[in-house]
Amino acid sequence: MCVGKCSRIVGPCLLVLGTLSMAASILLLFPAGASKYLLEGHISSHAKAVPGVWGGGIAVLLAATHITALGWQCPGCSTRHNAFISVVLSKLALLGAASCFVLSGVGLTNGPLCFYNTTELGLRHGALWGYPFLDAIDQGPHARADNYLYNQRTWSICLEPEGIVTWHVVLFSLLLLISVAEMVLALLQILNGCLGCLCGFCEGK
């Protein structure tokens, strides 16, 4: 496939994925669409880090914009110099997507911050805000094996926000899938851009 044709596919795909990543990360700040939990500070640390905004979003969109322009040959774009810039930006996108993947994976593993009854975990602190599934893991190896992701019956331990576990799991899982796709496309564009630097563009040849 020609360098330009490949860029015409990779660029728009990254634009869509970067936009979806930002949307998913922002939605994590508003459980069930409510803003009061963000105002009260009852949002998990990994959601507050918004990895989908700066990692899977802005870093990827910067590369996607240049790659799209490169593919559609704006005046002066189809040059080895611009192909090299696309490689640099694609590496930035790869790093951003990888960061988003790691932070989303940790956030998904730790579970959401919610208002829960600690007595259900064998603790005697009453109801409070915390990470119930992370606390459960801390109880011992038997609890670690009973991961909340594979046992939906434990999701009801979270009393507030309503449906927070589903919200958390779906959006962080979406961020994981998006970041994987972004990494694959970024790697593809790095190879594509290197070919453009070495061999030039094949349009018109």
Describe what you observe in this structure.
It is a single chain. The protein is mainly alpha-helical and 205 residues long. It has a three-stranded antiparallel sheet, with no helix packed on it. The relative contact order is 0.20. The model has no long low-confidence stretch (mean pLDDT 84). The longest helix has 36 residues, at 164-199. The chain has helices spanning 3-27, 36-40, 45-48, 51-71, 80-110, 132-138, 141-145, 164-199, and strands at 114-117, 127-130, 158-160. It has eight helices and three strands. It has one domain (1-112, 162-203).
Short description:
The protein is mainly alpha-helical.
Write the layout of secondary structure elements.
Elements: H1 3-27, H2 36-40, H3 45-48, H4 51-71, H5 80-110, E1 114-117, E2 127-130, H6 132-138, H7 141-145, E3 158-160, H8 164-199
Antiparallel strand pairs: 1-2, 1-3
Helix pairs in contact: 1-4, 1-8, 4-5, 4-8, 5-8
Pfam families: L6_membrane
Keywords: Membrane, Transmembrane, Transmembrane helix
GO cellular component, one term: membrane
